[in-house]
Amino acid sequence: MNKQLRKRLNRIRKRILGPNLDRVVLEKETRLLIEQLDVTSLSVLEISGQRWRKFGFRSYRCVEYPEFDVTADLVLSETFDLVIAEQVFEHVAYPYKAGKNVYQLLNAGGYFLISTPFLQKVHNYPIDCCRWTETGMKYFLSECGFESQQIETGSWGNRQAARANLRFRERFPRRNLFFGSWKNDPTFPVQVWALARK
Helix, strand, coil shares of the chain as percentages rounded to 5? Predict the structure, then answer.
């Protein structure tokens, strides 16, 4: 089978079978965290993504790497009520510096929503450096300046999802809405997230 046909078949397969369960659960859980806030009053900065752009925030801004490097000295003159970095910090060479910069970008009482994979294959976009458990995420955010009592963490995964994520060859769909297990096993987190308040 030629390369172009294989790519087309993979795209069709993904459309038919749906997204990975870990992404579905992550999106649902982070949405629940954000919905508990007064979203219409929030000024929001999303780092390297645009998933939240139509969520109904008072104001929304997206910055992308390499034009905006969260580890560099801050170049933004404004501060925000909510900073979102989903699936970003595993790609940051200096996560503590980046976390401290995010802390500086927040207004007093502002929130930081972060999510990272845990039991997943390395994916260099452009690099892949860090993984945290829920406990590790809490300590990481504490070191960045957030009070541990103001950090809410969560995770989702199970043996089947972790095994599928760690396969080297994927000849069949990893897991999807119809065939994967929805049951959470905290000892096999595939995705980890946190909402921290300044």
Answer: 35, 20, 45
Distance from the first to the final alpha carbon of the chain: 54
Domain 21-197 indexed as CATH 3.40.50.150 = yes
**Domain limits, the chain:** 21-197
Helices (H), the chain: 3-17, 21-35, 95-105, 134-143, 159-166
pLDDT in tens, 69-78: 999 877 688 9
Q: Are 119 and 78 in contact (CB under 8 A)?
A: no
CA distances from residue 7 to 11, 105, 166, 171 in whole angstroms, order as listed: 6, 41, 21, 13
Nearest to 113 by CA among 151, 143, 83: 83
Per this entry, what is the length of the chain? 198
Residue 170: pLDDT band with limits 50, 70, 90:
very low
